[in-house]
Each structure stands twice: as structure tokens, then as C-alpha cells.
Amino acid sequence: MNVVVVESPAKAKTINKYLGSGFTVLASFGHVRDLPAKDGSVRPDEDFAMSWEVDGASAKRLGDIVKALKDSDGLILATDPDREGEAISWHVLEVLRQKKAIGTKPVKRVVFNAITKSAVLDAMANPRDIDMPLVDAYLARRALDYLFGFTLSPVLWRKLPGARSAGRVQSVALRLVADREAEIERFIREEYWNIAALLKTPRNDGFEARLVSVDGKKLAKLDIKNAEQAGALRTMLEGASFKAASVEAKPTKRNPGPPFTTSTLQQAASGQLGFSASRTMQVAQRLYEGMDLGGETAGLITYMRTDGVQMAPEAVQAARQTISKVFGEKYVPEKPRFYSTKAKNAQEAHEAIRPTDFNRHPKDVRQFLDADQARLYELIWKRAIASQMQSADIERTVVDIDAQNGSSVAQLRANGSVVKFDGFLGAYVDHREEEDVDEDGARLPEIRAGEALAREKINATQHSTEPPPRYSEATLIKRMEELGIGRPSTYAATLATLRDREYITIDKRKLIPEAKGRLVIAFLESFFKRYVEYDFTADLEEKLDEISDGKLRWKDVLRDFWTDFFGSVDGIKELRVTNVLDALNEQLGPLVFPPRDDGSDPRICQVCGTGNLSLKLGKYGAFVGCSNYPECKFTRQLGGSEASGENGNGDEPKVLGKDPYTDEDVSVRNGRFGPYVQRGDGKEAKRASLPKGWTIEAMDHEKALALLSLPRDVGQHPETTKMISAGIGRYGPYLSHDGTYANLESAEDVFSIGLNRAVTVLAEKLAKGPGRGRGTPAALKDLGEHPDGGPITVRDGKYGPYVNWGKVNATLPKGKDPATVTVEEALLLITEKAGAKGTKKAPARKAAAKKPAAKKPAAKKAAAKKAS
């Protein structure tokens, strides 16, 4: 019997069915150990020695592997076929060797790009050793990221209160978003006009033509600058005669794109399905690891972390056969298509993302998948099929038209296109290609050279130039790939980190840098410019690739990086805060000093009229203040308008009136954590935050008193006679009664809901299921059976969403969408929760019974940990 180690339980379950009783397949649940988040985990002075830590949940899983190995013939490491997968295998093996669990038993490494029976059995028949250059590249990346973050982040904390962290790839991605925002702020709109004529052929068919030149001079986009020019040209054309000067039809071909890579899949899923990068990877992971297809378990797609664009020869042949069967022989090109990547620093060790079996048509497997899985699989299937199909034949027609009015001559042009043979477009049309087709125009009617054309109408339309659009997740990933920044496995995690750090927000799928994020990147560009340059980051990625190819030694790369980096950080330790603020005032001019409507100097305080405005650093971050402080107390939040300074004085309250019972002032204020209302002064003053959607400008005396009076008694429950209360808490507006909490739809409901409606809402909450003193939340999502039996569900509780299995409740990570939780993520959370409970009880009691004195060093260790 052999022990096989993979990453996830879903993958283990699928592979176990293929291998049979002679194998025990166990899941590591990803990495089994990591660098502790503290100083000294990577030690440059000790030749970059690294300390690894195994958490409680991983220790339990490793214990299961050790136990299984006792009666086994050998160990097979079958983790994913990339650097991370190789590193997981290396970590598992290192821990097992430290535990002396291997002995003389053989250890083999197997990899497969698809989880199908044939791919798995073929891999088992062709094992290899762990690829140490790949492991070295992983070690170099982890050390670089650790040294960058743990060396630079403390500098940020000291020089920029409120800043949370810096990261080698994270900071460069943030710079891309911030630079685009600065570009938008600097953009100056320009007015321009377009002139178009609605014409008709002698056969009474209408079409539109645009003005392109006047009296032999070509018109550029911005040449018609105002209404006066546009009006003169329209008048000229309204009196002109029109004739088709030439009609040219050009046959062209449009070729298909390659199958998906990680980044192109994320871009297409964003544009066509509305998926975030992380959601795309979660769904793709499930399709890769294996689905139950009515009794047969198989992975539906190949490995989804890749920047290769080729498919295996047998897959190409299978695709051609499916094209012939589904679309017809004329859609099969004479020769197979071959692709090469254009991305900088791309690694082509793996295939592109494709179906494992092209005969599994999306409509045939839809019944076994949820909606998101079905949509993503269809996208992958269509793109891979299209990549091996015939080109589309398109006829583009260009008609040049002469317009003459006396001595004035103008030229107009009409464009159109028609698909003569759809080719690959019959299977897949990229959302960007659809936009290109629209720009080419629709099909033109029959127009003959030399014939006169009738004028129907002349339109002059006003436009203005537009700033470059903000990045979306998809376009940012595309740009990072073009620059060679990061790798397929890092894109989604990088974006998630920027959101978690509150450096960016996402609004209508657009990435907007927060003031905090722009402050951080401005600081890094001012004092660590080299380390947030695109080329520097891409060059490091290239060196990591050379390490994985065995061309560079990983510690040599670390030494080169650390020598210069440490010197740069050491040189800034004595930098004065005033120097930092001067640099940031200059770097962030449009953000710190937005233009004023009256045209006055935005750097002069509008309250006192003599002070200079500047960035200031407080306990909770940066803000804008006056140089005449404390005489002038004007402040406003970074990125806020002048009006946000509340009557010109951001630290002073706006008094709304008196409390009728206490005669204390009721005021509205803008604090570090947002706007709030307050009654009275001092530490004992009553305060209440403004609910979501409420603004300082809209606050009045009545609303402020209502907020300060919460929680509100709605009335006694008719059955229990206990009071029902309404309030606004951490998770929004709610009702409470006898330990039961029920959410309300809006803050307004808190003040208006009556007793009857409140009783109904509470009854609906209780009807979702019994609980300990309150209604057990209904399941938001059913994830299926736990391997040990019992259903796994996702629920929404008093303190947020969580995963439930039996008596185990595991809280979801902050920001995690409950609807996107996979069974693998749920199992990991449940295991960690159960493992944490186990490590807190029996082991501690057992140790106490045997050695009472052992508590002393443990206590010291706990105290030291708390102090650090």
C-alpha cells in the first residue's frame, strides 16, 4: 500500500477512485507550514536561513500522514504541477523526514495536468524526484516577499501612521492603479464635433457617412473644435450635392485566439460573466479537481494556473474531431494551429486551460454543475474549440463620397462589414471582438461608384475627449501580465490584499485607489522609487524563472537584492517627518489641494486666509491642516472637499440644537472613523455613528435626537411580554427580543417599524430553525456531505457568516462572500476550528497533570508573545 498526498480533499476523493484499494490518498489542505509573521523568520546574516512554522490544523493532517505511512510501502507526492505544488511536496517531505517517518521507504513525485483516470495512471507509471530548482524558485520568492514586507512595512508605520503594509508585487500593482487615477486627475477635456450625413441611394436605401476632409485637408479627431465651425460645415453640406466617388470591398480574415491562460481566463470571465478574479479561480479549481458526472468522477478542465498557450498534440487532434462532428468539416482548418505567448517572462511549461475531454459538450454536463461552474466550463470549452477552427472570412466595404457646394469640396466616408463565413466565430466571440465589430459598422446597402446620392439630413454632434478609464480587475491583470509583474497564481491574491488593506475599493467593477493607498505609493515612489518600478519587479520575476530553470542560484539573487535594499531602508531611518510631508505634498498635489471653484489658491487656508495647507500626520493617518494651528483649527480628510471641513473647521462640531431633556448641545461631527452625532461634551458624552447612506449635510436636529435615543422600544411581545427593541449595530439595523436578533432592511425601519410587523419579522427568523435561545440561521448554501458524515452548510449568524458542520461553527474570513465558499474551503475552516479546540484542552491538562512546573516557561512564552 502506498500513501498519496495531494492538496485538497476534493482532489483526494477523485484520485482515490482511480487508484483503488492499493493506495491511501490524503489531503494536505495546501501548504502545511509557513514563515511566522514575525522578525527573524528569514535571516540574511545566517546565509538567508528560514524558520518554518506548522499550525495546529496542519499538524493534525501531518499526523494523519505519519500514521498512514507506518504500514505503507512508500510515499507518492502528487501535488499541483507548478512551483507552489512542488513546494508543498517539499514541505511535506521535509516535515516527515524531521519526524523520521520516512526511513528507507521510497519517495516519488508525480504530476498530472488534468485529473482524469488516464492522466493520473500515466503519471503514476512515470514518477520522478522533487524538482529542486522549482523549490529554490519558491524559496527565493517567499524570502524576497518576506524581506520586502517585514523590512519596509515598519518604516511605513513610523513615517505614515495608518499605513498597513508594503509588498513586493502588491505595491507595484497599487502604483498602477494610483498612476491611472493621477492621470485622470490631470486630464483636461477638449471639445470636438463630428459631422455625419444621412444619405440615400437611388434604390432608396439609407446609410450614414462621416465627414473626413474639407477642401483636400484631412480632418483629425479634434479639428472641429466648436459649434461655430461645426455649424459652418453643416451649412455647406446642406447645400451640397453628393456622389459616390469609389466603392471598395476588401476581403479579410479574422483568426482565432489561443486557448485561455490564467490571466486571459480571468479577463474573459470578468467581461462576459461578471466574475471577480478570485471567483474565477475558485470555480476553475472545482472544475479541475473533479466533478461527479452521474456516477463518473472526473476533472473537467486542465490545470488552471498557467501562462502557456499550447495544447497537447492529442488534445489538438481531439478538438479537430469534435469540430468536425459538431460544426462540420468546413470548420476544420487544413493544418492544426500552433500558438506562442506574447506575455513578458511567460513560463510555457504547462498547457493552456482546456477541457479534459472535448466530447463533454457544455450542454451535456450542465445538469451536474451549478450555474457558475456551467458558465465557466462553457467559456473554456468554446475558447479552446475556437482556437482550432477555421478563420472567419469578413468583407469590409469602404465607400468614399464627394460633396460639392460651389467651390467648396468635402469628402465623406462610410464603412461597413459583413461576415461571409463565420468560422471560429460560430463557437466563440470575445467581448472585445464584439466591440470591434460595432466600430466597423453594420452592413452597407448596395452602393455603385459614380451614382448620385440623396441627402436626407446633416447631423453635427458635440463630444469631448474622455480621460483614460480606471482599471478593472481584468484590465489590471492584463497590464501586470504585459509588464511581467507577478505570476498566474498571484494575481487574485494580490488584488485581494489591496482590498483587505483598504488601499483600493471596487465600485461598479472599477478599481479606485483610496487616499490611504495613494499616500503609501507616493511615499514609496518618493523614497524607494527603484523598488516600485515596473522593470525592477519584472527583472526579479525573470531571475526567479532562471532559478527554476537551474540557471541561477537562489541565494545569489537574495544577496544582490538585500545588499541594495537594506542600504536604502537604513538610509531613510533618520528622515524627518517634515521631509516626508514636503515630498508627499508635491507628489499628491491634485489630491491634497484640489482646485477651487472660485479659482483661488488651493494651498491657502480659506478659514484664516493666511495659513498654508499641508498634509499632517495623526494617530489614525494623514489629513490636511492649516499651518496656523492652534489659532486656526481647520482640518479635512485627505481627498475630501473644502466643505468637508464642517463650517471651515473640521475638528469643531456643527451644533444642531439642544437636547430637550438635558439641555445639552446636540452636534454632528466628522471623526477618524466617520461622521457621528454627539450629545454633550467630554468622555461621558453620548455618541452614535451615522448609518450607511446618511450624510452630515442631510443631518438635522430631529434625526440626531432619534439616533441618540437608540435602541428604541417597539413594544412588548404578545406571547412572552418581553420588550422588542430596534437598534443599529455593527452589522446594520436590527430587532432584538429575548436573545433573538433579526435584521431590518434599512435604518429608517428602526424608527418606523410597528409592533405587528416586528412580531412577524421575529417569527420569520425563528421559523428558520431552532437554536440555543435564538433562531438558528437558515442555510445560505448547502455544500454537501462531510467526508466523516453530516451536511456542511454556510449560514449567516449574529456575528457574520460562518460554515457549520454538526457542532462545529467556523467563521468565514473578513470580506469573504458566503455565496462563493467552496467545499474545500469549508473543510479547511472546519478542520482548523476543530484542531484549535483540540489543542486548547486535552494536551494542556495532560501536561499539567504530569509536570506542574512546565506551566512556568509556557507562561513566559505566552507573555513574551503578547508583548511582541
Automatic annotation (TrEMBL):
Region of interest (Disordered), ranges: 640-684, 768-793, 834-868
Stretches of Basic residues bias are at: 838-868
Keyword Membrane in the entry? The reply is: no
Alphabetically list the UniProt keywords. Answer: DNA-binding, Isomerase, Magnesium, Metal-binding, Topoisomerase, Zinc, Zinc-finger
Toprim domain location, by residue? 1-117
GO terms, molecular function: DNA binding; DNA topoisomerase type I (single strand cut, ATP-independent) activity; zinc ion binding
Source organism superkingdom: Bacteria
Q: Which CDD domains match?
A: TOP1Ac, TOPRIM_TopoIA_TopoI
> Which GO annotations describe the biological process of this protein?
DNA topological change
Annotated ranges, domain Topo IA-type catalytic: 131-569
Q: How does it assemble?
A: Monomer.
Q: What does this protein do?
A: Releases the supercoiling and torsional tension of DNA, which is introduced during the DNA replication and transcription, by transiently cleaving and rejoining one strand of the DNA duplex. Introduces a single-strand break via transesterification at a target site in duplex DNA. The scissile phosphodiester is attacked by the catalytic tyrosine of the enzyme, resulting in the formation of a DNA-(5'-phosphotyrosyl)-enzyme intermediate and the expulsion of a 3'-OH DNA strand. The free DNA strand then undergoes passage around the unbroken strand, thus removing DNA supercoils.
The family classification in the record reads: Belongs to the type IA topoisomerase family.
Kindly provide the name given to this protein in its UniProt entry: DNA topoisomerase 1
Species of origin reads Phyllobacterium myrsinacearum
- Gene name on record? topA
